[in-house]
Amino acid sequence: MGNIEIRIADSSDAVAISILGRVTFTETFGHLFRDRKDLQQYLLRTFSVEKIENSLKKKENVYWIAFADRLPVGYAKLKLNSPSQFVLGDDDVCQLQKIYVLKDFLSLRIGFQLQERLLQRAIKSDYHAIWLSVLDENERAINFYKRNGFETVGQHEFQIGREHFDFIVMSKSLKSDRDS
After folding, report:
1. Of 25, 60, 67, 105, which residue is the least packed, with the fewest Cβ within 10 Å?
2. CATH says 4-179 is which class?
3. Half-sphere exposure in the Cβ direction for 28 (13 Å, CA)
4. Cα distance between residue 165 and residue 44, in whole Å
5. Going by DSSP bridges, is the β-strand pair 93-101/129-135 parallel, antiparallel, or unpaired?
6. Mean pLDDT, all residues of the chain
């Protein structure tokens, strides 16, 4: 696997993003569900092609899709104008909503490349900060974000079916990146 391509996604990528979302979510979180029906219902609701198509059309959403030797292997989503109770500055805050890469391709550093594209866009759009939520058990992701300048700023819970999940909220100032 040598040839990595990352580009802005458009409506023609909805099916690939839907499949990537389902597979990567299951790879990462599937083991946490006691009831497979809860997982299946969440996947149907969150990663339906129609929902992804609608999300791609919204001007506040920017998606990137990553390919390894022309195979779709990951994607990222930036939500512009996305205030958080944990981050000051409602008008110039955005959210890193998703960076998902198929497990077999993690070693290619595609997640880092997706994050770089996403951060460049946020800086270019004059946001002063970016935030994200990450499952508190997902140490690999937490360490990834810490290595890339994110700091813990809060916590929140999320429920899917019968399962309750604890999330860490992290943020990163984009001011210093803009000034350099």
Report:
1. 60
2. alpha beta
3. 22
4. 19
5. parallel
6. 92
Count the residues in the chain.
180
SS (H, E, C) the chain: CCCEEEEECCHHHHHHHHHHHHHHHHHHHHHHCCCHHHHHHHHHHHCCHHHHHHHHHCCCEEEEEEEECCEEEEEEEEECCCCECCECCHHHEEEEEEEEECHHHHHHCHHHHHHHHHHHHHHHCCCCEEEEEEECCCHHHHHHHHHCCCEEEEEEEEEECCEEEEEEEEEEECHHHHHC
The order of strands in the sheet holding 151-160 is 4-8, 61-68, 71-79, 93-101, 129-135, 163-173, 151-160
Residue 28 or 67, more confident? 67
Residue boundaries of the structural domains of the chain: 4-179
| pLDDT-above-90 percentage for the chain | 81
